[in-house]
Write a structure and sequence with these properties.
The complex is a heterodimer. Chain A is α+β, with helices and mostly antiparallel strands. Chain A contains five helices and nine strands, in the order E-H-E-E-E-H-E-E-H-E-E-H-E-H. The chains are: A alpha+beta, B alpha+beta.
Amino acid sequence: MTKKLAALDVNKCIGCMECMFACSRRVGRGGFDKSAVRVRSAGGIERGFVIVACRACENPPCAKVCPTGALRERKGGGVILNEDKCIGCGFCAQACIMGAIFWDSERNKPIVCKYCGECANYCVHNAIGMVEVKAEA
Amino acid sequence: MLTQAKDMNRVLYIDLTKKDNKIENREDLFDEYLGGSGVAIKLLEEECPKGIDPLSAGNPIIFAVGPLTALYPSASKTVAMFKSPLTGNLGESHTGGRSAMAIKLAGYGAIVIKGSSDIPVYLAIHGDEVKFKDASSIWGIEAVAVGRILREVEPGAGVRTIIRIGRAGEKGVRYACAVCETYRHFGRLGLGAVMGSKKLKAAVISADKSIEIPKDKRKEYKLVYDEIQDVVVETDAMEKYHDLGTAGKIYEMNKLGGMAYKNLESASAPEEIAREFSGENIAEKYLSRRVSCAHCPVGCIHLASLRELYEPGYYFKTTTIPYDNETIYALGFMLGMKSAEDYLRLIDVVDRIGMDAISTGVTLAWATEAYERGIITKEHTDGLDFHWGDVQVYSEAIEKIVAMPNEFYQNLAKGVEHVSSIYGGQDYALAFGGNEMPEYHTGIACYLNNLTGARHSHLDSAGYDLDQKLIGKEFTIEEVVKGLLKEEEWRQILSSLVVCFFARKVYSAERVIKALDAIGIENWTEEKLEDLGRVIHRAKMDFKFREGFDLAKLRIPKRIFEVPTPHGFLKEEDVRKAIEIYGEMIGGDIQN
């Protein structure tokens, strides 16, 4: 079953950034320079938070602009990155109007959500969670 | 840039006079004192000359984070140290927000700010880049608006902290605070005034780095992390601090008779007042959002939303206001407020102007009683008619404390210890060690905490907690002093790691050692941690003694003996004896 990450209820987000930390922790890092999910205030904490994460689009714009075929569509929505093919042009990040493709400046490669759900495991207030792609259609 | 946790020992030194900075590796300090309070007190010893005026260029401001910062849940606090303009000795205040994460991931274990700028400036610290920027156009602006402006002009949205002062700090109100992320504060002991004296309006610090977990430790790190996360989420911390927040204990504290009301005229307010100010009532009527500090799943920060008609013609405004236990006490109970709405309005005033809510409330409570007793007249108050519960008068008084239109307000801006030494009424001037008292009137332990705690803060040794545990039990004064000292010593470790005190039950010695080990900081033992706690505590006390603090000269306001606690009436001779025992316990060098 194909799953994707979703903002279940952004009003439940307390801005703890545990999702961001969890994502970089997968590769043994404390911080968020490898994180494919971001949380920031919606222009001041009183307005609440914005959760920026890959929506796993059907027909994803990021894949369409990839000149080398490094980003290919995942069955059911979203993309899979083949890093070997990626030349680091950054077109994918520009094409994502959600701003959900982040940049690894160390390696000059995009940071693309792998839909693993590690971030959601640490969201104790259930602001984000994994959902089945089909259930949303 | 990538660093391992054991190498996170860079100290950024900033000179505001010369507009210069340098970075030094201080593994000597971080290896021995961990970080936070431990490293900060050592830097304070190095950087703060004996006997200097706290509002002079020579007083350093030190921000320090610790080895667990950005790596474990609820290791979310930053320690600020400086010489306090309020007490004249140790200034130490903690805050959360995003400050700790931002400082650590900008690549620093500590930041030392010295000197004084000739023009208003703010610091823009983005990783290794340090810039001094002209703050002339934001000088004189309230703390909330400064955040709004800098948010737009500086990069780092979501991964930065904005520490700033309001007008109170600029004008040198001795209990001015520094505001962080709009709703968090380095509240106590006057950091805001020290920043103001340096013409430092704000510091924006943003993260651009990561900490690498050694390859052979990654499995262990994840296991320890998950254990801590589970405990944080499953202990009562979550329920206690997330649901109603710290305000959740207001009603019970009042019922217990441990809540100072109207300048401690009594230790509990009438039932209808307690209901009005209860966490339950405020949550039902005003709670609009709960938020957390970076890397803490608890979310204890409670924000109220207040919709008001402020001018005829449908001019409404909606204000978001943070509330918690201590501000409900200081600006609600102490000032005899009758409605939660008025209390929220007053917090908003205090927040915008940038003053410590506890000190402001206690100082105004003294002024109200002094006015009622006729020591203070309308001539002093510049025409204000101080009386309990009047939010309008108190709001105007707060403006006057900052504007200082006459000598009385100049004195009021120096705190209740000072103002009462000029006009009298010391018997009911509720400061301990020069710091205005926190909420509790629970018994001897809370006052010993206030008197002997290095920061004169209820969080030094949680005396209020010990008092409650001792209700109905037999105990000796020695046991109380010993218990408080042990708690304060252990809290030095927590504030060196730096872990939020709300997660204190999670971070047992055993777990701390495991957590350190899993990020490559090895060879700590329970004994070593306990020893270090003692060393840091004594270093803080030594700094106080060096600056003239004297246990034998501690003033104890008579009022606390006139109102019964849940343990009955306290006796001055018991408190004095306890202070003496405390002096003996911490060693001979107290008779300076």
